[in-house]
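Here is an idea for our session: we take a single protein and study its fold together. To get us started, please write out a protein record for me. Start from the sequence, derive the backbone structure tokens from it, and show both lines together. Go ahead whenever you are ready, and we will take it from there:
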Amino acid sequence: MRVRHAEQTEAPLLTPEQFRSTPEFRKFTGIMRRLLKVPKADLDAMVRVSKARSPRTGNPNAPGRKPENSRS
């Protein structure tokens, strides 16, 4: 896959504000808001279940855990 540099494009580059104001981006954000809307209660329940099922639970040597002596 080849990436074209900015000087090779025909259209001028948009500023972030100009990009956000395009109809395509506004439609995309509207769709994504509806898709990603999850009630907080459901999200909290999913987090609780994930923590309970995690193989890292109770394992002090699991990846990402800090050693006991470095905790403050």
